[in-house]
Amino acid sequence: MAIDRLDAPIRLTWTLQSGVLAPSDLEVLARRIGEAGVFFVTLRGDFHRDPATPAVVEVLRSFGLAPVLVVPGGAAGDACLPQGVSVHLDLTDQLLEGRHAPDGVGRFCRTTPCSALSLVPLRPLLRQVPGILALAGQLGVAVHLPNVPLVDDVDGLAPLVPRASDLSVLAEALQNVDRSVWPDQIVAHDLFVWELLFPGRDREHYLGCQAGNSLAHLACDGTLHPCISWPLPLGSLFDSDLPTLWSGAGRRAVLESLAQTPDGCHSCRMLPRCHGGCRGLVQTLAGENQAPDLLCAGPVPDGNTS
Question: Which domains can be identified in the chain, with CATH numbers?
């Protein structure tokens, strides 16, 4: 895939684990993010309940950023929501634990600046996707189906990452659903999930793997990674500013990796759409760069429509 190399990521996710860093350190990181010219920042982890969050948000806002704050569904009632944030209610952990309270979700969306429901499409949750889409449409909010946050918990999440054979569960769940009740705005990070939701429809948000280019992730200790699905340290934002890390050898190696077409993909008619798919999950879980996307069932010959 030909890559237009960016001087800084456009979208950055940042996970907080309370107690790892001092509030003053968090403000330093926020300032470095703002100074780098990042456009979109998503605050995850303990940001919804940490007393340092309002100060972090204020720093980001001083650079013209309007951060998204991810609030776990199970903690919605206790979340601290500073001014100037857009809220995404993440139902992932709640559904993994077998809990789901639509009434509570509705109350939260009506009484907070909640703009979207979020669900990581892990293997046990694929069957839940159509119901979440319908619920979001009923509530008038968007849906985000983000990439797997492996950097946060590789050991816990790796067994839950779906493979190509698992997509039949989602395909079955989508049979005979009424898509007219879905919200207008649906963001699916994975192309193969998107194709099941909207067969053949183009998407605006992602083109191929954008790790280390338009995407980046900041771990709770201040270490920069290519994206939240790719646990590959590029350096500490305490030691160097973001543009310096973005011009470093680690990031260059990521882009060189992305420029290679995976084995078996050259003759596939989907290549102009997927560009080899998610490389972070492949390198982390398959242990090699030349394997296809984990959700890819194999090359689609020219002339085939599926």
Answer: 11-247 (3.20.20.70)
